[in-house]
Amino acid sequence: MPNTKSAEKTVRQSATRHSRNMWRLRSMREAIKDFNEQILHGSVQKATDSFKVCQKVIDRNAQKGVIHKNQAARRKSRLSAKLKAKKAVAK
What is the pLDDT of residues 44-75, one digit of tens each? Predict the structure, then answer.
């Protein structure tokens, strides 16, 4: 339990930031799930559009500090490899 007013404020700020970060992570995971669904069952065009959305969400989360920039780069690289493989199969 916080003992001072500033400690109480810090607890409130921490809770707010935590809930915001969890929302951002959830939206990123949902975008990635949508992309994976398009890779499995959708067309190349839909997968490409979904990939662009994923990139934006991942970059935004890295910029905000929700995930590390190297983790963002790794996730985008893996998604890009999946998209490239889908395009190769489609040809």
Answer: 999 999 999 999 999 999 999 999 999 999 99
* CA–CA separation, 29 and 67 (whole Å): 12
Give φ, ψ of 85 to 5 degrees. Answer: -65, -40
Q: What is the DSSP string of 26-46?
A: HHHHHHHHHHHHHHHHS-HHH
User: Are 2 and 10 in contact, with CB atoms under 8 Å apart?
Assistant: yes
Helix 44-64 / helix 5-41 crossing angle, nearest 10 deg: 160
Q: Which amino acid is at 2?
A: P
Per-residue pLDDT tens for 8-21? 999 999 999 999 99
**Three-state DSSP class for 81?**
helix
Instruction: Name the CA dihedral angle for 26, 32, 33, 34, rounded to a multiple of 10 degrees.
Output: 110
